[in-house]
Amino acid sequence: MKGGGTRSGGGGAGRRWAAVLLWAVAGWLMTGTGDARAAEGGGRGTGHETVNLQGRLGDVAIERDGTRVWVNHGGERLTAEAYLLRLERAQRRRAEAGVAYRMLNITTAAGVVWVAVGLLGQVLFTGRMVVQWWASEREGRSVVPAVFWWMSLGGATMLLIYFVWRKDIVGVLGQGAGWAIYARNLVLIWRTRAEARAGAAPARG
Hints:
Largest sheet: 3 strands, antiparallel
Radius of gyration: 25 Å
Number of strands: 3
Distance between the termini: 32 Å
Mean pLDDT: 75
Low-confidence stretches: 1-11, 29-45
Number of helices: 7
Shape: elongated
Oligomer: single chain
Strand order of the largest sheet: 1-2-3
């Protein structure tokens, strides 16, 4: 009973620390969000349009019409001068939006959500090692609990979504391969437990 109480208290403390960490990350991410919304206030047709810096060079089509150069970005055809002006506005607005926007390399409030998904995935990915270490210490030997694979799968899924948004092929390939391995381990665990239950049923009968 005493040992069980100690484990319960440790789990409660871990949950409190996790909650504090998540609140701290959320507060840090939201720094400058209000400024960013204000900066985005100029919509289309106001002369304050900007360029989505989250895009990549592949999203920008360059066209030539005689001596003129046109830029097709997001379905809109702009002169090279107009495109550069929008690019300048976007860079200036990101610089004014807050330190979090610059450090996380985002340009809109929606980017905060995507980065939060990636960070939460990384927390799960790192936390799985803590869980595995804790389980091994309790057993006095090296063990890999099922929750380790569930946390791996959840973290890989969130990181995969994040890397797809970032258009990072290295991250997509890495997390995609790991995702299949984590899922396979969970299938094997489920199958082993199902076989154990099936074998134990006749013995009880």
